[in-house]
């Protein structure tokens, strides 16, 4: 009987040691399968943990907002960065309020004006009207912008005063240029007001407190 009990105890103890060995192996880093490599030590594990944390932080930075949230705010912020980066900036002449007023005018013209468009031979006529600040903004922006459009190689542009605003007429310099005529009509007022590369330099000139880059601008 004692012999049987002894054999059972030996079997139980052997099984316990085997289970312990299995769990111990499960909690230790495994050596790579390729020959000659050493198991990962504590320093390597710490380095991997640090890299994982950095990757997580980089991911958080990559998903942070980058847009300013408001277009005029973004335009002014961009100009401020340019002024800061220029060692020749004379801060005694900088006038960002003037730029802000101009951006308000842009907002009034683009979003608040009434626009009626009609084809004319060779192009398009546009009546741009509004009241109060919008009417003043139309006069401040559309008239000088027509002069810029008129300098472009394919178009002629002019304005006429009308009640509440301005009539803008843009035609192709070559009336039988069907593509140029179609482009004018396709752009319409909303597209034509964006044509020309003078807007950004004009904004920077305003912020520096210099004379307007466009003759006729009141802001």
Structural overview:
By secondary structure, this protein is α+β, with helices and mostly antiparallel strands. It has a domain at 71-207. It is 55% helix and 14% strand. The protein contains seven helices and four strands. It has helices at 2-27, 42-62, 71-85, 96-112, 133-150, 178-192, 199-207; strands at 114-120, 123-129, 155-162, 165-172. Strands 1-2-4-3 form a four-stranded antiparallel β-sheet, covered by helices on one side. Helix 4 (96-112) runs antiparallel to helix 7.
What brief labels describe this structure?
alpha+beta; 4-stranded antiparallel β-sheet; 219 residues; 55% helix; 4 strands; elongated
Decide which structural class fits the backbone.
alpha+beta
Strand order of the largest sheet: 1-2-4-3
Radius of gyration: 36 Å
Shape: elongated
**Beta fraction of the residues?**
5-15%
**H and E order:** HHHHEEHEEHH
Total helical segments: 7
Could you outline the blueprint of secondary structure elements for this entry?
Layout: H1 2-27, H2 42-62, H3 71-85, H4 96-112, E1 114-120, E2 123-129, H5 133-150, E3 155-162, E4 165-172, H6 178-192, H7 199-207
Antiparallel strand pairs: 1-2, 2-4, 3-4
Helix pairs in contact: 4-5, 4-7
Give a brief outline of the structure.
With 219 residues, this protein is of the alpha+beta class.
